[in-house]
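MODEL INPUT / OUTPUT PAIR
PAIR INDEX: 1
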Amino acid sequence: MADYILNIESSTGVCSVSISSGNNIVSFRESKTDRSHASMLTVFIEEVMEESGIGTKGLAAVAVSSGPGSYTGLRIGTSAAKGICYAADLPLIAVNTLALMTQMVLESPDIQPGEDSLLCPMIDARRMEVYTALFDASGKQTTDISAEIITGNTFRHLLDERKILFCGDGAEKCMETIDHKNAVFVPGIYPSAVMMAAFASSALKEGRIENTAYFTPFYLKDFLTTIPKRKMF
């Protein structure tokens, strides 16, 4: 019997949902309309469930992208995933958002990183700050996830020694700032539920399951709100 997994990705401006079996995608929905998570996520979940012909009783688990990324997006995705897990008594799986982006680069047919190359997925965190981590050419994470303010000297000591492939919406705003011959910017890379199948399947087989009650996504920074000027006094 196939182990069907519902995958939810909502960490950036892109909202996507998929049903996977092993490494294969059975059904998939995606919206690149910014801030569409609240209105589209439950719709996408219903559509992939109907299209695949799998009810919640046919699922083996629910996987959710765990961040870092948008506070609101991660909260919406996690809430939906937890709700389904509680209602259907399913295990919850967390998938590293930056690892998803790295895997998309590694599976791109036009990109061939050298053995010594590093991959640097970046998620926009406003102004010149990004959420990022470094991965080697096999997709293994080599540094902790952090919030970095990008300057002309960021990663320069590494770029002097090897090629680094930058990707994601955070990398797009850094192209002029990170000016080095070994800096390669890969366009069109973003976290997507279509890339979650292999990660979720491996986690399920290995028993890497989250505590549904206590799981929180990796926000990295606290949510900050601003008060409209007309309400300050």
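PAIR INDEX: 2
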Amino acid sequence: MTTPLELVILDMAGTTVLDDGVVEQAFQRAAERTGVADRMPWDEALDHVRVTMGQSKIDVFTHLSGGDVPAAQRATAAFEGAYAEIVAEQGVSEIPGAADAIQGLKDSGLKVVLTTGFAPVTRDALIDGLGWQDLIDLALSPVDAGRGRPAPDLVLAALLRTQASSVQAVAVAGDTVSDVESGRRAGAGFVAGVLTGAHDRPALSAAGADAVLSDVTALRGALVQRELLPLITTS
């Protein structure tokens, strides 16, 4: 018997929020300002950033700094500052159709939680910039949950905070391998990858995605197709 869905957990940058290279730009500024990536070739450092998209930024910078936690903390603060600068310079945009997709999920009786590897200050600035404060039920960063992705903590924290009845009643969607792995490790009933961000179809499928979708606007249809949501028609 299929467990009815109660909660959908969506990633932010690359899934619901247009990234357009902002994460990489912010990383470059942070690296230039702190020297955190000086211990390895630049291409190698940038590749690590790309591979670990979606993960907690402090974890990423801890690796790049060779385990130097104070240096990683300085670099993370520099990254958050640089990201805020770029958002102020360029503005923030949703993945086309994301707000309507979220509203459609809400209209189906689901709670919607946004999760991210960003610190709360950056996360909240993005939500404020999009005007999504009243659209979503909750937004969580690693500091709110314990560990960042690919650990299951963000998914499980969202479940607890929204009082969903079971992990099988949770759907997760994101654009990175870490998003998919986090959902799988938490035991979510449905885990989808989307192709609007960091990782491609083979990577998302290999990570264990139940479906790989063109973008977040296709999520509700995929849930209906799998009979996890009822088909609602309008006259």
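PAIR 2 NOTE: The CA atoms of residues 37 and 64 lie 6 Å apart.
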